[in-house]
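Listing S7. Sequence submitted for prediction.
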Amino acid sequence: MNRTVGIIVITIFGTLLVVSAVDFKPWGDPLQPASVHVSPRYIERTLEETGVPNVVTSVLADYRGYDTLFETSVIFTAGIVVIILLRRQTDGKGTG
């Protein structure tokens, strides 16, 4: 029973993944909204809006600062969870 449910769930998620991947726009398409509207603004106004001469640094630290902070927090939390799940207990109750 549990194995059948697992196979059904994996099949559903796999199908959703494939359907979503097929619907992606071509990578590097110069006519995508991000390439037409957002990127030129970052490139042209970085120095005057942020005071940082490096475009990559200004995007990561100023324009997308909260996004970068939360991504780092998610990766840190995932690492802590992996450590907790994989650690061995030494109190005689077996492995964790």
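Caption to Listing S7: primary sequence and predicted structure tokens for the chain studied. Helices lie at 2-22, 33-50, 55-63, 65-86. The chain has a mean pLDDT of 86.
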